[in-house]
Design a protein that fits this description.
With 99 residues, the protein is mostly helical. It has helices at 13-25, 31-37, 42-55, 64-95.
């Protein structure tokens, strides 16, 4: 007989990250200590803190909205390149057909 796993109530990821960044920003614990206490990687927590600083204008870099826009543009560019490739192959196919 299989045991059913109890599902944990999932917190929205963004609010979780915001809470972690807030803990680090209070200054009473280091980023490394917060990461260890919550069993997270220090690298991930540091990147969340860094991105929050960029979004607040305290640090140079791409904001979250700029990153999302860049990712969308890259997806669109990749799709358009695939479309051009398909059209080139279709053109070559139809050009090679006897008249």
């Amino acid at each position: 007989m299989k045991k059913k796993k109890k599902k944990k109530k999932a917190r929205p990821r963004r609010s979780f990250k915001a809470e972690i960044v807030e803990l680090c920003g209070r200054g009473n614990r280091s980023v490394g200590q917060v990461a260890r206490d919550l069993e997270l990687t220090e690298t991930a927590v540091r990147s969340w803190v860094r991105q929050t600083e960029v979004d607040a204008g305290e640090r140079d870099g791409l904001t979250s909205s700029e990153r999302e826009e860049l990712a969308a543009l890259r997806r669109e560019n990749r799709r358009l390149r695939e479309d051009v490739g398909i059209l080139k192959r279709a053109t070559a196919f139809f050009a090679s057909m006897p008249k």
